[in-house]
Specification:
heterodimer; A: alpha+beta; OB fold (Dihydrolipoamide Acetyltransferase, E2P); Arc Repressor Mutant, subunit A; three-stranded antiparallel beta sheet; B: mainly beta; 2 helices; globular; DNA replication (chain A); DNA-binding (chain A); NA-bd_OB-fold (chain A)
Chain lengths: 281, 106
């Protein structure tokens, strides 16, 4: 279980922190470690979780309770209200109301924020999902204008990465929503856990072609071929992979399915075009 | 909070399936001729924008309605500056419109 030491995720922060006093500190519902996670999300993910949860229930995405979230979107409207600013932010998947408090709350700082968050401006929001007027909104800790628009790309990729990390590698992932987070997480680790971590571990001391244990045989065979260092930077054409695996009885359909599965798990990527493949190890 | 009216992030490949729909399209401005802005899509294909405003930076994100597989009618746009990685964005588009579309649009 050493691979799941909390420090590995210190940079991400979306995994629950394993606290030494967890047993004693877990009085009350939820457990406070959940308060320390930060999830990159889309509005659509939150709406889907909202539909699945009751009005007073915690939101759960990919089996993990949602508290602190970050999202990137475009300001649709911004208006002053009671010492703060109410923003509507659209991230292309949907629209969410964001309540932003303004330091000081005086007219000058208010006007400055309203000028900074004009409709059409991209903003990064950090906040907490709260029940609000029958629905939910995001109470923000910080809202800042985006100046480097690669952050838009980055946020979407981070959302996908965290989703895969929490949901995909886990055979218990489907059931995790119904159980406590530690339980789902423990089952995840017991079931073989995170193939990528294992692969990184293997890559450090062993030849790159070593496939993670438990990988489906066709995927392992495909990964071995496309990870061959003699193939060069251009990778291996899908036709070559097929012809080399035909003697083992793997159809083109199975090879292609294996390639896409490997791509989804970040074991493989396409190079000069969609037909040339290379292993990531 | 609602997800009733998404404006999907699309590249050139998706435009033909999105005619009449509102989308977000990021491209690099190649030329401006009256009301038509010619842009390069993240995959390098050419797209025409029926513009209603002036594009001030090399990269821009257009929100608008797809007219035909090569044309978008602008509703508004956001200037994306002069430093935007189109290759990474193109890879993101494949994920968003492919294996991970459930997180975003459907």
């Amino acid at each position: 279980m050493a691979m799941f030491d909390a420090h590995q995720f210190a940079g991400g922060g979306f995994m629950p922190t394993q606290q030494p006093d967890q047993g004693m500190g877990a009085s009350g519902k939820g457990g406070r470690h959940n308060e320390q996670t930060l999830r990159a999300v889309t509005v659509r993910q939150m709406v889907t979780a909202l539909d699945a949860a009751g009005p007073d229930q915690d939101l759960v995405i990919d089996g993990a309770e949602l508290s602190n979230v970050t999202l990137v979107g475009k300001v649709v409207s911004a208006e002053e209200s009671g010492g703060g600013i109410n923003l509507a932010v659209s991230d292309s998947t949907g629209t969410v109301d964001v309540r932003a408090y303004v330091d000081g709350g005086d007219q000058q700082s208010m006007a400055q924020k309203l000028a900074e968050w004009q409709p059409g401006t991209y903003v990064r929001v950090y906040g907490h999902v709260r029940p609000f007027g029958g629905g939910r909104n995001v109470q923000s800790f910080a809202v800042r204008a985006v100046h480097d628009f690669n952050e838009v790309t980055y946020h979407c990729l981070q959302t996908i990465f965290q989703h895969i990390h929490l949901a995909k590698g886990s055979p218990a992932g489907g059931a995790a929503g119904a159980v406590k987070q530690e339980a789902g997480f423990g089952a995840f680790a017991a079931a073989g856990g995170w193939p990528q971590q294992q692969q990184f571990g293997a890559a450090a001391g062993a030849p790159a072609a070593a496939a993670p244990p438990g990988m489906e045989p066709c995927q392992a065979a495909v990964l071995k071929i496309i990870s061959d260092p003699t193939a060069g930077e251009g990778g291996v054409h899908v036709n070559d992979v097929c012809s080399r695996l035909a003697p083992q009885g793997y159809t083109r359909q199975r090879v292609e399915a294996a390639l896409y599965a490997l791509q989804n798990e970040a074991h493989a990527f396409t190079t000069s075009d969609d037909s040339h493949w290379k292993g990531t190890a | 909070m609602n997800a009733d009216a998404p404006t999907p992030r699309v590249g050139f490949a998706q435009l033909k399936n999105m005619i009449g729909r509102r989308v977000l399209f990021v491209g690099r401005v190649e030329s401006m001729d009256g009301g038509v802005v010619r842009m390069a899509a993240p995959d390098g294909s050419k797209v025409s924008i029926q513009a209603n405003s002036t594009f001030e930076t090399p990269f821009a994100e257009v929100q608008g309605t797809v007219v035909d597989p090569q044309t978008i009618r602008e509703e508004s746009h956001v200037n994306f500056g002069d430093n935007f990685d189109m290759n990474t964005y193109n890879e993101l588009l494949k994920l968003v419109n492919g294996p991970h579309s459930a997180l975003f649009y459907q």
